[in-house]
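Hi everyone,

Forwarding the result from last night's run.
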Amino acid sequence: MTIWSLPAVIFRTIFLNLFVWIPLSAAGFLLLFLLGMAAAALAPFLSHNDLQNWIHCYLAPGHHVAFEILAQIVMGLVVLSAYFALLLLIFSSIIPPESTDTGGSKVWRVVLTSALVPMVLFVTWISVIMITTLNTSEGALSTFITWLPWPLVVGLVFIVGFQIFGNIAFNEQYRARRLSEIYGGKLLVAVIGLSLLAAIPYVYQLLVWITGDQNEPRAKSAIGVLSVVSSVATGIYGHLTRNTESSSLTKYVASLGAALFLYSIAIIAYLLAIAVMPHDTPSEMLDAFRNDQPQALILVWIGLAVGFAFTTNINYLGLYRFYRDRLMEAFMPSPDSIKLWEARYSEADRYSIAELWPQKEADASKSREHPYPIFNTNAIMVNDPDPKLFERGGDNFIFSPLYVGSASTGWQRTPGYIGSRNPVTLPTAMAASGAAINSNAAYIGEGVTRESLVSIAMMLMNLRLGWWFARPNTKPRRPNHVNPGFWAGVMGFGYTSKSNFVELSDGGNFDNLGLYELVRRRLKIILIIDGEEDEASAMPALVSVSQRVRDDFGVILHLDRRVDDLMPAPVPGFPLDVPFAKSAYFTARIEYPDKEDGCGLLIYLKARMIGDLDFIVRGYRAKNSNFPNEPTLNQFFEPEQFEAYRTLGFVAMSRLIGDLKLNGGLIGSGSLLAACGLQPPQMPVQPPSTGHPQAGPGAAP
């Protein structure tokens, strides 16, 4: 492994995924050409009217009628939106939105409406007569304008009816405003999307004109370079800003880069499509094979891409496997790896998490030499109808030896989930829990990677560490480029608690401390070790999870004034002007809502510069101003850096154990609870097999 290994993997990932997506997009353009031909054949007025002739003559869209029809659809949508705005204007002029009188002015409103109706109809019909007289082709434009008055008549009839029924009009006016606000935004997105699609031939011609190369190779090269640069820039920018507060400018810059990438990919796909089918003549594709033309290779490429799109597991073509294998080699090495000091295959690669704990209740009561592991991830749910899940961007999803799932998706026993061909190994669960770079997800639910365009670009390149899993208690499915790749990742469908696939990302996108699931289990003592990047000492992870456990479980963490000793302040001595904290930990009371649960104790340890640290650690801090809050982008620790963090953790934990008298461990900490006015923990209870979320599914016995 060298510093160039990661760039090589990123390049391989982008290449493998664009190898599928670009020809798939080209197939989409070919389908668009065929649909345009079918529409022109079934509805001749779409391709024989003054508007179409004007588009064809003055805009010169090329040799495909599909783009001319798209342009007409865009213009029609614009006219309809303006038409609805006109109805809303008439409605508002008759009844002012702030009006509250529904009785005395009813007669006046009816008279005013009756006067406006013939006036509007007269002006509309005069306009229709004038335009249809000039337009003799009887095509789409004249047909559309001829039909135009009838929706207006229906709208005005409804308005007159509302005047007669008094205050119903006020309700309907509000509903009309809400409809225009809600669906107006969706209509605007549709108009922009269709306009950009219809403009692709013109944009390519513009690039040819700018490069001054009529043979087109320089224009094609410019598009390719733009695609590569924007894709890499979007991925890097999204990673660098994932843990930072995203300003509006940050989001706009990232979205613009993603938009350039997506549009350049569309233009490249368009070039492939017109190379195979330059005119609205499907036989040209067959001629490519008959005459052994190079275009036949493009058709073969498209066929291979369609096959790969439905059969390839999209999880295996991303950065996830690279990330998972490195974690396995570092934290679960084989004996040969340790002996030879080199990365080798580890048996942990096939070690199921269900094997980490006895599955039978009789065996579960026996003493064990290791703790019960809970792997926290974030199930992305950016489209869920539940406002809470939508705003948070997901729900806490766990993998444990006994249970898999979340409160929103439901729970399933781990052996049953794995038995239905959903393998969950120890390295897989650990890597999913730390999948920090992912589309539609960000640190504690806020960040630039939640922007739609950025997420689509990351999904197409598969520059993500997340993992697609089948939702618990559903039949096994293999995630591929079509579903959920295109269906959810690109089109935006899915990403709900009822979707067949669940995309899992870093648990820190929901709770970066692991406190949420421990509070759910009503534990008496919770020890949290916080090593996140927090140079501003804002403690965002603790603030976020404190609010979420209060909202979801009614649990209150009494943190007021408890965190003050963790706040660093400058002190005299070496290193100069470096802030130190009085302590690296604090304790706080956990107040559970149920009387039978009583209260608990939170012990919170954070990476802090404290006075007990030796000269070597202080010297490292003197040379590195962001220690111990260095960014996670730095994945290659030097020996000096590693030793500084190791010593920091050892000194801080030794002080915590000594102050709280935990030499016997947390199990024997009844005296600690008593000193805090809390009751010692009772004998643990095995979780019920129903997996009810409030009962603590997956909780350790």
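Confidence is low (pLDDT under 50) at residues 681-701.

Cheers,
N.
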